[in-house]
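# step 3/5: fold
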Amino acid sequence: MTSSFGSWSSPFTAAQIAQASPRIEGALFVGDEIWWGESVPSEGGRIAVRSSTGEVILPAPWNARSRVHEYGGGSWTADADGTLFFVDKDDQRVYRMPRGGAPDPLTAQGAAFGGLRLQHGRLLAVREDLRPAQHLRAIVEIPLDGSAAADDDSAVRVFISTSGFVAHPALSPDGTRIAWVQWSGIKMPWEQALLHIAPVDGDEIASISTHAALQPEWAGEDELLYLDDPSGRWNLHRVRVADGRNPLSPQPVAPADADTGGGLWVLGNRWYQPLHDGRIVAVRTNGDDEIVLIGAEGQVELLTLPITAGTSIDDAHGSRVLISGAGATVGSGLWCIDVDHGAVTTVTGGDEAKAAWVPRARPVTFDGPHGPVHAFDYPPTTPDATGPEGALPPYIVMVHGGPTSHVSGAASTAYAYWTSRGIGVLDVNYGGSTGYGRAYRERLDGAWGVVDVDDVIAAARGMADAGLADPARIAIRGGSAGGWTVLCALVRGGTFGAGISRYGVADLRMLAADTHDFEAHYLNGLVGPLPEAEAVYIERSPLTHVDRIDVPVLLEQGSEDRVVPPAQSEVIRDALAARGVPHEYVLFEGEGHGFRAAETIIASLETELRFLGRVFGFEPQL
């Protein structure tokens, strides 16, 4: 059947997308079971903990979500007997919950916790003091007997306290030393982060010279693994600690022209897991993800798995490994892999994509003014309709947030919502993205609002020049830092016929004044330091040049967003209204930085589809 692009009938409703493949928030082997964290959109996006037995370990209304470093992560862990330890979203205290019992607090009010790790019977965490006069961060050990739950939490053992930032605590097998990652905050962790080792009963800290260290893990009493990128790629390294204290020269482990590592936005990320026999399971990213088994002598075996995107190597026990992510032909999920026997078991999610309806991502590269621009193309796909002869489909250019972040090609019902209706999707990893090495990542240094905009424009024009997209009907959509790029690209003009900004940055000076501690100096590297670069901040900000925006704009915002407050969207709304530029502004009550509740996801998708239908002249089928 011939039908206008954008008007095709689709089996994917917004309600289905809201309840689609789960977002996994960590996974563990717990006795004979597998536990995992999972976002529940129908319950306001709370993080529940579930078991492979079908039991909901952490029921409503409890919500395992950390606010450390604002983005949280590592909000739960468990012991082999089934005792759950979690951070509650509302008060940020750590709770202990025996299986079938009620949660009891282990920490006092006034601090947030994240990055929980239970090692050798000891509960480690990253603590952030929430008192304005303090605001220190620390690597701590939380006593399991509840003695730190009183108002005075002096029972919490502090290994290191700093006005900077810390992550990834790792306790040595004998419990005598602790390793962690630390950065000052003047630089972001992917720019410069140090690896430290200290005795648990002393204050002498040994430092290993690193560029952007990640995820230390002990591989023996005197051997430490970690990630770093001195070669321009995050690779595994191994260092021996002589006489139990002084580290020797680190050695790379099976180096590759790919990244085992990424932006340290959240505390729960795991890019590799050492096995009991010296082997290592690791993810390698070069656009897409691949998963490898590294032998004790450095030999590398590629594991044949369905996972190619968003990979986290969550836990290991014996020869079994838990890996979450998504793939070219499967939705997001969690898998258990036995590396000795080759067995691959789907624990949750991982639904096979219907090829007739869900397009397979096509890696594409375009020539840009700053070098190659990498992206993934999701063309319109349906078994039931074709576009009119000679017509080209509308496209949405997706811009990820961060900006130091990454997208990989994966089966996505969220994208099929668009492609099954005859609207193509182009997901762009503009300069500044991770997953292509340090040089590609640093392309954005000092050039945010320039390189990212040049790259998305180059990608959009590349699709149009190739005869794959209607040049008059290309929209651009992004959230947070991606929303900034949307607004900057609309200011530039000439390429995009509409823009969708989700909690996007409009004014750099406002962002610098309002942003939280974790990103307090992020703009120094992306744009320049204040006050020296104030003229650049003004010139780059979309608000300064809002008079140049001459296409319809949809602005979406969460009322409780503390990363990019509503004022950022509202100044653009007011400026567009003053000039009579067609626009819509939707404020979602109770939402923060990113939309989690099912009703919000539904309303947002349907609003966007109707908006594009009005702008591009098609009648959408909701």
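# step 4/5: annotate
The two ends are 19 Å apart (CA to CA).
# step 5/5: archive (pending)
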